[in-house]
User: Fold these one by one.
Assistant:
Number 1:
Amino acid sequence: MVCVPADLTSPDAPAPPDARPPGGARLRAAARRVSAPVIHPTKASLRGFALASVVANAGIVATGAAVRLSNSGLGCLDWPTCTKASLAAAPRAGEPMIHTWIEFGNRTLTGVLEIIAVLVFVAALRYRPPGSQRRRGDLVWLAAIQPFAILIQAVIGGIVVLTDLNPAWVSAHFMVSVLVLAAAVTLHVRCGEDAGPVRALVRSELRWLGTGMVAVVFAMLAAGTVVTGTGPLAGATGVPRYHFSLVSVTQLHADIGWLMGGLAFALVLGLRLTGAPERIIRIGYLLLAMMAVQGTIGYIQYFSHLPAGLVWVHESASVLIWIVTLRLWFTMRTRDPVPESPEGAEAGPLPGHVLARQGQSGAR
């Protein structure tokens, strides 16, 4: 009888050296684990990628505002390189290095955003709903928009630099970012839904009011770019500005803000009175509170002569309001599961004329 040492029979004992996979196999296994959420995505992992895209798009808008409000818009004078002699941030006579780093940092984040967008697209392309071998075309198209839109956005950013921060191009640059962010929010919502037909959860009048809210918030964001492009924080010293009265465009911006707040109040009141689902009402209250805070910040920054830090808080908060407005609009409806294919259903009774024809054939 041969005695085997206890430590070799223990399940917790380390495997003999020759039983371990070689280094290359371990690397391949690690690569498969890392790439699995993209190559073999689940509903949860795809939604996680979509959320990362929302966060990254919101972040790039906030950092873009920081570039403008810190007078760093011309920190890199060339495009796609920072200067004619350097791809990365480099010292330049007459320009503080901090401005160059802020502008170059924003460009670097655009590259990170593009990588996230590509990962989202690949994951959407590879995703198959449970029990199905077919991809969801709606998710693929929403995911495909983002990498191409970000490339277009980068080109617009180059035009902004090469035109010395022309205010019209700066406004377009911001508003395209707002649209890309809306696509990211839409994808995140749709990843959590089924692919069936839309079913409203509130009355149609409230859905129309919610649609109006989305349009007014978008107009509010556009008006904000005009205010910034008219005022003293246009991106750098001596750059062109809109030839408007700052008082007039600020008043227009405030008027749109009051309209936005009134619509939000009416929407929340309507949701409450018609017995809408509590989740929708809670998002409505959140939006109303955010708008109240945003309006307060807006008036404080105006009467304190537009301090850059407070203006940045105001612009960043507007991005959050845009996200919450879109979420509220999407929450007011749902999508039911796709109806089952009739191929798997049991055959019902045949029509009478078919039965009669079959009977005649049997008689013959």
Note: The mean pLDDT is 83.
Number 2:
Amino acid sequence: MQGHDHSKMDKGDADTKKSDAEKMPATAHAEMPHKGDDDMTGMPHGTVDLSAATRATSAQKFAWAFLSLVLLAAGLIFSATVVNLNLSARDVGGAIMPPGMIMLRDTPGEAMRDMAAVDPRHVTFVAPANARGDNDLQPRLENAVKAFDLTTSVIKWNILPYEQVMGYAFNQQIPGPRIRITEGDRVRIRVTNNLPESTTVHWHGLILPNQFDGPAEITQEPIQPGESYTYEFFAQQAGTFFYHTHDHVDRQQALGLYGALLIDPRTPQNIPAYDLEYTVQLQEWLEREGYTFPAMLMEGGLPNFFTINGKAYPSTDTVNMQVGQKIRIRFIGSNNNFIHPMHIHGGPFTVVETDGNVVPESARIQKDTVNVGPGERYDVIWEAREPGKWLLHCHIPHHTTNNNVEEQGAGGLTMILNVTP
């Protein structure tokens, strides 16, 4: 047998020496069963069974369950330190709070309801855009008693042609109607409550029987929704007074529940003569994104609109006068939170009455600005000395804007005394 020169074997001869297994396709080779893989029969070669490796043990399950409970408890404890978990939806009544209002974890539901926006579902009347408040309320006689009716309700009210608020009103107007009586009159005032919460009426500055003074839960039971209460008293004083709610006052008075109460003297008072008279009732408003909130002196509750007798300039009244005429202006602090330095251009005025009390002639002073705080009243007499348009306005600039904007030169707590020759 002749020998072969292996070094001279060509590539084809080498291929013939390869095993059949080496010549098989890779996929077929992978699918061939391997000896010793008895426990993986039928599985593709190279596949590893991980089900056993990932199956949780009882100890692992217990550990995860325990950790979940710990995390849940930690979340509840953290929440309890941040918010009041005792409050329910019923407690807050679906209240919408003012943007920026600081609410702490211990803020009670009652406070939230008082600071919340007026619920549009409670509106029962939409006043015409040009409607005015402070209209005279005529009495009827009942056995020599002057009888008046006041009804509270939630209304929509325009403070500007384009700016509507939702407010609380007496007799569907803001401010409420003017009650004018004479010293010595016996009056009977029936108040019917159509608000979504209880209310009362306080007769600010009057001497009267304590049972008719008005503070809720102190001198009388609150007037519940749908109920009425009758106040009756003699007018023992003369001067400038006003009436306002005395239940949920922070909310209800800020939303418009007040009105002028003017008592004429039975005999002439020692007050200089005057030709005209005008009553100025002041108020702040907070309106955001279509919601009306009670304006308050606190974060989130600061006002952005201001009104004289329910209107913001340039929708406030213009008083027409002639040179030489004198006007008695009755400033009423029907506002809830702020002091308004009320100023009149064109010369000083004389303060003749404060809080319903005539200032003795020897004590009268002349001023051109008087600070009108909540609840205060100042009666001043101003003389028209020169022709022109003379401003009566608050001297805090922000209070003479409408949502921080001036319109036609001013806004808010501004009105014009128009004097002609």
Note: Confidence is low (pLDDT under 50) at residues 1-41.
Number 3:
Amino acid sequence: MVKIFPFRGVYYNKKKLKNLSKVMTPPYDIVSPEMQAKLYDLNDFNFIRLILGKEFAGDNEYNNRYVRAAAFLNGWLRHKVLLTDDKPAIYIYEQRFTVSGKKFVRVGFISILRLEDMGRGKVFPHEETYPRAKLDRLQLMRTTSADLDSIFAFYSDKKDKIGKVTRQTMKKKPFIEVKDLDNVVHRLWKIDKKPLINKLVQEMKDKAVFIADGHHRYEAAVRNKNELKMKNTKFSEDEAYNHVMVYFTPIENKGLVVLPIHRTVSNLAYFDPIRFENDLAEYFDVVPYPATKKTVGKIRKKLLKDMQKVTDKHAIGLYLGNYRYFLLRLKDEKMIDEMVAEEKPKAWKHLDVTILHYAVFDRLLNMANETEDKVTYFKSEEEAVKAVDEKGAVMAFLLNPTRIEEIIAVASELEKMPHKSTYFYPKLLSGPVFYRFEHGEKVKL
């Protein structure tokens, strides 16, 4: 059973900060060092100081970015830069954005969710995680006692029962409206009336919830709960730390846009590009897309369009530098079935990212267990290509986006996709509202 609850959200005081766009940030996992520095300079109260603080040479166990984040948070609350809602609420969250010239609107709501081990109830993950990233978020959660960012999840609302409640609330003026660095407009409303809250709570009870983004944070929250549970002999499940902040959006929402995440590979010893091209032919039909300095942009666009047209076979784009592009089309899906020794469902085996990881990363490049150190992820194909041309990456793989139905098919089988298989766009903004849990506090309707 999915148990959601309203919470007393924490958000910026508009009386002290007139321009909220200067204190909001993208999520921590897409902030580059250059962007981090820019956000630090933008405003003394920018949210980056909480979610991704700077590191210094003299940092130690007692003075580090996690400890400083907690100090900033406590100080901002004390000086009323941040305010805490007087009563629990559920927050409607709308994003208006443009992709490839087309306008979209995505609407969901933010509440807290009672934690459960993923795959043992109604909450399903779909991606693998890295230990290093989980520990990072866990350390931040330990020091701040807060969920500073929402988990992003989706569910089915075929009869539009939840949609009717959210639209009813959205007739009022939003209490927060801000435009981010990508010109996405973010707006929030509060639902603090008990009848409407109870309606959402009841409707969500029997839903299956699929985590779209925030797997590391969810697993960190579970571990944090387990650590605190060990210290609490009277654990009842109602404890505030047994909950995590989640943004829920319906799968039927046309604004649920999934973009691809491209990959580059670096640090390959004794790499021979000519041999690699020949080896690819064992698994793929390799179609070259020759380009010159003048035509490279046009050729890349053509490659990406042609990849999207391939429906009968899996298609992956490859860039090997010096304007050399290739279209890789899997010769036969039976190859992947034979390659993947584990008892995995068909939906998992036939994902483009699975094919890339097993056929190329594992078989051809012999780096199956080294991807965390050798593979870098990019939401922009231009940035991935630039990493090869200017930053020493050996190759870039350009991918089609994973389809929603593929995500559900894999997650429903209690399986996880390879790391960074999906990029739900736009990301949720960091800073509009967050959840702070007091130790000893209980969560009940």
Note: The chain has a mean pLDDT of 92.
Number 4:
Amino acid sequence: MEIIIAIYMLVWPVIVAGVLFVLVRGFVKDWREARAEGRSII
């Protein structure tokens, strides 16, 4: 049981980092497109 908890504790930050990376990448892409078109992102 301890090994399952240890694996979970090690994998959870990787999953969170992956989701955060996808969100930030999408935001940066939209921000660059808006900036190139001369419009506000909001």
Note: The chain has a mean pLDDT of 94.
